[in-house]
């Protein structure tokens, strides 16, 4: 699976100030939308699953509305039993006339869905989606086209509010697939060994492994990341994978006497560059202060280039802007 | 009458029982039902009505339309449609009102103000000046909140509402309370699922400045004893606002004896067009109220430094009004007056009791609100749930048989929560509905229940 290669915006060293009065959105929510947009833009959209097409065609071919509803009732009986404890707000489809819940299980890289509703007809519609979208990988689900319902030709069979409800069901399933997809990416990015330990150590508390460094992460981001981890049922990964990885690399390469990494991503929620690039953790804008002997004899530009070279991977994605202060020990009065 | 229907007339025999009429053939054919729909003895007083509503002569899913969603909106008689068509069409007089000297404008102004007078007479207001046109009842309540409320209510003042209110009689007060630091109190339901007057007495205090309650509930069907409530409010110097959306269309409403200081209603629920409604307020109150929307029509003089405002009702009617709609509303008032509001109320009472009785007999059906035998009676509508089946499932299957009802929270989430439910089904008949249509609905409901069981 290829990640989107966005242009490296080295020129943007100074993060733009956020517009006044801009409320920072919970990074988890915004991140998913951006991530979904990224992934959709990068690869072609998924072909509509044949199983779903067949089901819908069978449904549509019934001319009599009463018989169509009987069909939905039949689909509803095909649903697997739904665990009572999964009737949570997080699993609930918003904007539905009745109550609908949806959960996903990842097996062998493919998602199996389960759904429930207090309305039998809605349960039948949910069953359509469950049948049609089970057995796809998270990535395939995220890349389903947004006009999926129109493509299925279901619109004429459903009233406007049912159409809306059906769309919202689909969107929640996409969001859950994205959650799981990000979890997978998260696990791939984390490497085993010392770095992994450092990351795990940095995970909950904001403490740097190199002494005086600190990572400023908002409580919201922390909670959001932890919440996601809990939902996916994994042992908690670091809430700040990007900062962790930057710290690790900079420490290895530059042996800094001082390393401060401040995460300013929240202040940039919503502005152009921020959108479309944020990874799962919402880490996109950083202030970094470095004091290192390796900067001796290098001009400011050369120092910055050095840092960017070291952080090449992060700069590609998801970091949008890095504001750097690079000093030699002498300059920092630390010699 | 029957000749106007497309379907051939078929005869149906009936047996009269103590609780009403039962068709001998339990499953009437759709054809017979359509034909016989006009012949319901219970609707005798309003027999001319049905032919005035050609929209009812249609099929849905190859079954005759049985329109029982009148609490959401009513159908419009030819007389109203003609009045609006005449305004715009050939020989018409569409023109902006109040300014202008030319013939069309004069005719438009006359018709527009005549309509206001008709509304005033319809509710027995002292003068047309007490009728403020708004977009609907919701806007009328917002108008009171943002003018009378904003000017007269201060930190710590109390407003008494109820858990049964329509959202339009809750949210504007919540918004006002947030801005001005007011306290909102909510009357709950009595054992008979009407508003609890005993509790109301305890909620009204010397700090109460406004009591704003629904006259006839669109969910429970309960009827408020308005005079009693007015006395309780006035005793502490509070004003009374009544939401009359479900009363003005269905029974005689006389603001002289009602006791309220403000009432609101919407045209589209009383055979008038959408897009217009009204606030009735005592002239003395309206005269004290500051303007809300600013613009043309509501002014006297406009200077750069300051402007002066018109007298009520114009003060609250900024911009070009919904002229055709006002004329339509006037025609609706004429139409209903022609039927006689006492006759309309009698029809609603009988049909409502019939609907209630038939629903009661169905297993697993639970109807909300008081019984028709309650002291204040109840509206003709019936909101209910079927145990174990979701309301939207019921209404969806009913739709396949041509029966139109509403399901959902009916813009009354709080009362649903209070009753421990998320949503419900509501059947609400009006002047053109008949007992046979109620029969059709009940049959279809029974079938729907079987469908899901």
TrEMBL record, chain A:
This protein's name: Fe-S metabolism associated domain-containing protein
Compositional bias of kind Low complexity: 183-214, 221-236
Region annotated Disordered, chain positions: 183-245, 257-276
Pfam families: BolA, SufE
Lineage, highest ranks first: Eukaryota, Viridiplantae, Chlorophyta, core chlorophytes, Trebouxiophyceae
PANTHER family: PTHR46230, SUFE-LIKE PROTEIN 1, CHLOROPLASTIC_MITOCHONDRIAL
InterPro entries membership: BolA (IPR002634), BolA-like_sf (IPR036065), Fe-S_metab-assoc_dom (IPR003808)
Record-level GO BP terms: iron-sulfur cluster assembly
Alphabetical list of Gene3D superfamilies matching this protein: 3.90.1010.10, BolA-like
UniProtKB/TrEMBL annotation, chain B:
Source species, domain of life: Eukaryota
Reactions listed under catalytic activity: (sulfur carrier)-H + L-cysteine = (sulfur carrier)-SH + L-alanine
Leader sequence residues: none
EC identifiers of the protein: 2.8.1.7
Cofactor(s) of this protein: pyridoxal 5'-phosphate
Keywords, comma-separated and alphabetical: Pyridoxal phosphate, Transferase
InterPro entries the UniProt entry points to: Aminotrans_V_dom, Cys_dSase_SufS, PyrdxlP-dep_Trfase, PyrdxlP-dep_Trfase_major, PyrdxlP-dep_Trfase_small
UniProt GO BP: cysteine metabolic process
SUPFAM superfamilies in alphabetical order: PLP-dependent transferases
The protein's enzyme class: transferase
Listed GO MF terms: cysteine desulfurase activity; pyridoxal phosphate binding
Domain Aminotransferase class V: 66-441
Classification via Gene3D superfamilies: Aspartate Aminotransferase, domain 1, Type I PLP-dependent aspartate aminotransferase-like (Major domain)
CDD domains linked: SufS_like (cd06453)
Family annotation (PANTHER family): CYSTEINE DESULFURASE (PTHR43586), CYSTEINE DESULFURASE 1, CHLOROPLASTIC (PTHR43586:SF8)
Protein name as it appears in the record: cysteine desulfurase
């Amino acid at each position: 699976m290829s990640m989107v290669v966005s242009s490296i915006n080295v020129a943007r060293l100074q993060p733009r100030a956020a517009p006044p009065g801009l409320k920072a959105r919970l990074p988890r929510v915004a991140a998913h939308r951006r991530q979904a947009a990224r992934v959709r833009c990068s690869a072609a959209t998924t072909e509509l699953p044949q199983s779903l097409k067949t089901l819908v065609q069978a449904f549509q071919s019934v001319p009599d509305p009463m018989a169509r509803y009987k069909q939905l009732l039949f689909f509803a009986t095909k649903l697997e039993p739904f665990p009572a404890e999964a009737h949570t707000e997080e699993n609930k489809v918003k904007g539905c006339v009745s109550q609908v819940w949806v959960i996903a299980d990842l097996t062998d890289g493919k998602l199996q869905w389960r759904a429930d509703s207090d309305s039998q007809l809605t349960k039948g519609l949910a069953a359509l989606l469950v049948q049609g979208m089970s057995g796809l990988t998270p990535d395939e689900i995220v890349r389903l086209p947004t006009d999926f319902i129109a493509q299925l030709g279901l619109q004429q069979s459903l009233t406007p509010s049912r159409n809306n409800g059906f769309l919202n069901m689909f969107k929640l399933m996409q969001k859950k697939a994205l959650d799981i997809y990000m979890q997978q990416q998260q696990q791939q990015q984390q490497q085993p060994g010392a770095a992994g330990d450092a990351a795990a150590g940095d995970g909950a508390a904001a403490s740097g492994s190199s002494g005086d460094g600190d990572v400023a992460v908002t409580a919201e981001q922390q909670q959001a990341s932890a919440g996601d981890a809990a939902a996916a049922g994994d042992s908690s990964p670091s809430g700040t994978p990007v900062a962790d990885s930057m710290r690790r690399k900079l420490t290895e390469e530059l042996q800094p006497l001082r390393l401060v990494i401040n995460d300013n991503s929240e202040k940039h929620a919503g502005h152009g560059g921020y959108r479309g690039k944020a990874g799962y953790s919402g880490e996109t804008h950083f202030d970094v202060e470095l004091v290192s002997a390796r900067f001796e004899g290098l001009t400011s530009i050369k120092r910055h280039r050095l840092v960017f070279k070291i952080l090449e991977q992060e700069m590609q994605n998801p970091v949008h802007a890095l504001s750097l202060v690079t000093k030699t020990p002498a300059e920092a009065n630390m010699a | 009458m029957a000749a106007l229907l497309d379907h051939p007339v078929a005869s149906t025999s009936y047996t009269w029982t103590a609780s009403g009429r039962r068709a001998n053939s339990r499953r009437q054919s759709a054809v017979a039902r359509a034909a016989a729909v006009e012949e319901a003895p219970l609707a005798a007083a309003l027999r001319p009505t049905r032919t005035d509503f050609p929209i009812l002569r249609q099929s849905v899913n190859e079954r005759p339309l049985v329109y029982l969603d009148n609490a959401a909106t009513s159908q419009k008689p030819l007389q109203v449609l003609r009045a609006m068509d005449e305004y715009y069409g050939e020989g018409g007089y569409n023109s902006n009102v109040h300014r202008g000297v030319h013939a069309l404008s004069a005719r438009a102004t006359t018709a527009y103000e005549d309509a206001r007078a008709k509304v005033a007479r319809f509710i027995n207001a002292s003068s047309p000046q007490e009728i403020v046109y708004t977009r609907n009842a919701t806007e009328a309540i917002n108008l009171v909140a943002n003018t009378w409320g904003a000017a007269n209510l201060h930190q710590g003042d109390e407003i008494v509402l109820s858990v049964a209110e329509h959202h339009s009689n809750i949210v504007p007060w919540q918004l006002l309370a947030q801005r001005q630091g007011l306290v909102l109190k909510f009357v709950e339901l009595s054992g008979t699922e009407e508003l609890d007057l005993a509790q109301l007495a305890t909620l009204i205090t010397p700090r109460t400045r406004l009591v704003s309650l629904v006259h006839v509930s669109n969910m429970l069907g309960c009827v408020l004893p308005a005079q009693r409530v007015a006395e309780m409010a006035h005793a502490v110097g509070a004003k009374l606002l009544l939401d009359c959306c479900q009363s003005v269309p269905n029974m005689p409403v006389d603001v002289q004896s009602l006791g309220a200081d403000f009432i609101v209603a919407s045209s589209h629920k009383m055979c008038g067009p959408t897009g217009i409604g009204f606030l009735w307020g005592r002239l003395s109150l309206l005269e004290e109220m500051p303007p809300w929307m600013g613009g043309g029509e509501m002014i006297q003089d406009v200077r750069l430094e300051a402007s002066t405002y018109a007298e009520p009702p114009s003060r609250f009617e900024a911009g070009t009004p919904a002229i055709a709609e006002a004329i339509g509303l006037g025609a609706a008032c004429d139409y209903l007056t022609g039927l006689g509001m006492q006759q309309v109320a009698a029809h609603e009472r009988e049909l409502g009791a019939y609907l209630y009785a038939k629903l009661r007999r169905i297993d697993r059906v639970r109807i909300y609100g008081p019984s028709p035998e309650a002291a204040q009676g109840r509206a003709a509508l019936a909101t209910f749930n079927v145990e174990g089946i979701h309301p939207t499932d019921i209404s969806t299957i009913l739709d396949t048989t041509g029966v139109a009802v509403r399901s959902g929270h009916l813009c009354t989430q709080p009362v649903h929560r209070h009753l421990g439910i998320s949503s419900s089904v509501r059947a609400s008949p009006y002047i053109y509905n008949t007992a046979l249509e109620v029969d059709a609905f009940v049959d279809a409901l029974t079938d729907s229940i079987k469908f899901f069981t």
